[in-house]
Amino acid sequence: MIKAGIIGATGYAGNEIVRLLLGHKDVEIAWYGSRSYIDKRYADVYRNFFRLVEDTCLDDNMEELADQVDVIFTATPQGLCASLINEGILSKAKVIDLSADFRIKDVAKYEEWYGITHKAPQFVKEAVYGLCEINRKEIAGARLVANPGCYPTCSTLSIYPLIKAGVIDPDTVIIDAKSGTSGAGRGAKVDNLFCEVNESIKAYGVATHRHTPEIEDQLGYACGREVKISFTPHLVPMNRGILVTAYASLAKDVTDEELRALYHDCYDHEPFVRVLDPDVCPQTRFVEGSNYVDVNFKIDRRTNRVIMMGAIDNLVKGAAGQAVQNMNLMFGFPETEGLLAIPMCP
What we know:
By secondary structure, this protein is of the alpha/beta class. Helices cover about 30% and strands about 20% of the residues.
């Protein structure tokens, strides 16, 4: 049994970490951190935990927290984890950061896209990018894991088998992605009010979304060269889910069967990635509430392009579930422990 602490436990991702860890047989939550609800009962913030959690919310004192737990989850805005972390903390507890602070290895690129100064550049090289399906071995030995963003998780896993095999042209990748409103966080914003999002869909962060360099880095590592993509996210009026539809020109003359074999070679041994049957398109409703990723592809012979598709729950595989999966690897637990919930439908 290990002890876990969560900084940002009252945000949507933090709340999801709590939900998942309560079902994990090897973890006890010892710290529910929140700047907004200090001394308030956690179950009064999220009534779904009534009679399940009796603890009150504490602050974000990471130094004190590291003395009490084995692992710290930081489900916080960009910049906070980097401003708090130090060698003393990492010598006592492992850290899984759900922000972007340690995802991008080029500090100058991080500062350009996020518009803030990196407060802990000395740990960037050490941090392991926590996409379990690609970096499993490195994650197992890490003390600091950069939990991937939701869009990069779905985008990378949808495209990875083909770009790694060199069958698509990296210079032609276009990603169209759609997310539920929980991806914007729990903070009150006019753009996220019910009347602003209901019965509507909109693009946002066009050509400027901060997940762009993260996706480019991961695809670049896969194919061994620099990659630049066109990435456009959209906000849709639903609570959870991300759907990615990505396009790229074929670089080789390949058959459907050859591409399907590439996906199966990559993912048949993966507990959470499901390669769908031919002509079945991923849907967010079939992964909701779960850590599963549904992927598939379709070749458009008329244009010599391939359409790559993926669906995840942005709060689970796109955030909290992936963080718990990383924790399992870091502590030698079964990778699926606490994460085998069947998707909810409807």
